Amino acid sequence: MAMTGGCLCGAVRYEVASAPAFAGHCYCTDCRRSSGTGHATVVGVAEADLKLTGELKAYTSTADSGAAVTRYFCPTCGSGIYSKGARPGMVVLKAGSLDDPETMKPMAALYVARAPSWDRPAEGLMMFEAMPPG
């Protein structure tokens, strides 16, 4: 199942040939702030399977785990594309950048203890108070 996506202005495009390893909503402070919303919806894929065209800028910060997380975004329109962190070989696509958001289905909600009252996790998802192991 191929997934395609890109930024708002079209300068950055990507394709992923493999199926997602995971998909979900993250309510950590960094994801909320970087997305400008109550949570970030993300899709984990193998880094080797991500084919990207266009220029990206990056911003690195330290996650709650102590690991460095680098977020990549379009320098023209500012759209978030993906991030890389503590899981070697994986990248985390921003689900809002997908051409067809129906190609992914959220499985879990992370950092639910930090979810704002106006953006509660959906029933039926696996819920984690923080980052799950592995």
Helix content: under 10%
Structure class: mainly beta
Mean pLDDT: 93
Taken together, the total number of domains comes to 1
Strands, count: 11
Structure notes:
The structure is a single chain. The chain is mostly beta strands. It has one domain: Metal Binding Protein, Guanine Nucleotide Exchange Factor, Chain A. 5% of the residues lie in helices and 38% in strands. It is built from one helix and eleven strands; from the N terminus they run βββαββββββββ. It has one helix at 29-35, and strands at 3-6, 13-16, 22-26, 40-46, 50-53, 57-62, 68-73, 80-84, 90-94, 108-110, 126-127. An eight-stranded mixed sheet has the order 6-7-8-9-4-3-10-11. It has a three-stranded antiparallel sheet with strand order 1-2-5, with no helix packed on it. β6 and β7 (68-73) form a beta hairpin. It is globular. The two termini are 24 Å apart. The model has no long low-confidence stretch (mean pLDDT 93).
